[in-house]
Amino acid sequence: MAHEGTYVPRTAQLVQSIEENSLERTFTFELLDGEPLRYNPGQFMLVTVFGAGEAPFTLCSMPGSDGLLRMTVRRYPGGRVTEALHEMQPGGHVGIRGPFGNGFPMEMLRGRDVLVVAGGIGMAPQRGLIEAILNDREQFGKLTVFYGMANPEQMLYDDLMQEWLERPEIDLFMTIDRPHPDWSGHVGLITTLFEDFEVDALMTSATVVGPPVMYRFVIKELENLSLNPEYIFLSLERRMSCGVGKCGHCAIKGTYVCIDGPVFSLTKYRQLDEE
User: Fold this and answer.
1) 129: left (phi over 0), alpha (psi -120 to 50) or beta
2) Residues 202-226 pLDDT 10s
3) pLDDT at 274 (0 to 100)
4) First-last CA distance in the chain
């Protein structure tokens, strides 16, 4: 069923634009009508840049934190919306519709250990999830985060990563693909972080977001840990377009990623033949 905000954009003002690296910026928006937006980690919004177009972006902020909406956006050459966003200055206005999609199933994470696996910009949609867990820490078991990137220049949220490294409530492990003079940490593909990693398989849930090539190999590692496929969750947000199941761009075997997803259990993911 369509809800308020599905078809009619709400006007939001850009209050902050932070350069994360050469490709990505994090944008903070404030809705001008003053009405709070309720959403779950992993849900996405459709953002209209007036004169450029509309595109889907996943929220990276924790629900209900300060009333502001944060999205980390990669700039794609020739992408009218992403280029226009990256050029926008604070004070500019956009239209925002949503939230759309299901987000991460928090009820399947509470009371369990949680392993978050993020590759590259896949950290963005999981940042809000991690912050939500940290904000309600007693409701969750052990929190472990694996974060892989091609090189240190591609890291998102430098200050936040340093904060997480120093917090006892979270175990953060980071790696880059190849040696780099500015990196003294772990080197290797994200799958190498699974070496000697032990979990309570019956009590662990996992979330995975990253480039498509990563999924097959991470899934294999999670299966080697004997995790229940019903408690492994993967995002297919890269397939989304209209957000409401009208354009058919995200349809896979009768399943609409923007409506039924973008987050699916591994069991459902395999039914979609996405590996």
Assistant:
1) alpha
2) 999 999 999 999 999 999 999 999 9
3) 58
4) 31
Domains by residue range for the chain, with CATH: 10-99 (2.40.30.10), 106-271 (3.40.50.80)
pLDDT at position 244, please? 53
pLDDT, tens only, 115-133: 999 999 999 999 999 999 9
For residues 49 and 11, is the Cβ–Cβ distance under 8 A?
no
SS3 32: coil
Among residues 107, 48, 87, the alpha carbon closest in space to that of 243 is found at 48
Q: pTM of the predicted model, to two decimals?
A: 0.90
Average pLDDT of the chain is 91
Whether the CB-CB separation of 14 and 28 falls below 8 Å is answered with yes
Of 116, 95, 123, 97, the residue nearest 39 (C-alpha): 97
Q: Buried b / exposed e across 108-144, counting CB within 10 Å, b at 16+?
A: ebeebbbbbbbbbbbbbbbbbbbbbbeeeeeebbebb
Strands 204-209 and 186-187, by their bridges, are unpaired
Closest CA to 238 of 223, 228, 249: 249
